[in-house]
Please model this.
Amino acid sequence: MLLAFISNSMNEALPVASPERLAQKILPGDLAMWFFIMAELTVFAILFIAFAVTRQIYPEMFIAGQATLHPIAGVINTLALILSSYMVVLAVNAITSDHQHKARNFLVAALAFACVYLVTKSWEYQLLLEQDYGISTNTFYMLYFFITFFHFMHVLLGMVILTSIALKAHKKGYIRTEQGNPNISGFEAGASYWHMVDLVWIILFPLIYIVH
Model:
């Protein structure tokens, strides 16, 4: 009796998806972007595995290398990308509600937080290089610089994409659907890419800075 009551209550509380709703695409954006995202995630996964396996082979080298890094800089970068990603979420919500100028403002804020990441990461690179730690120092620094700079370039590409969709939102350049709503497939694709960049760093930060 109790299970039946709970089941009936849930059925009343949860909306039943219509056939039209079920027919809608599950993933935001376009399929091509998701193929690209999955390919990039695969590359990052291989790099993460290589880093973890090599750390098991040279534990002392990696512990010594991690001691020269700046975890506070890593925390700042993590917060910057999380906040940037949140601004992108707000931008998507705004563009969905047809508030294109609000979406533009949120994207500008997202780009500002991304700039915090770029400046902080560049400062960390400079400090390491000034101490003569470079890609040729040992295996730890080779992997550190390669993986983090690879991610750094993805952040730059993501910023170009965010700038592009922000300009489009500023000019109200979205083609309308038959219902009169803006076609935001490209907007969602760009947002999905940026969330991928954020997700990769959330995994990268503890892997390189914290885990021994």
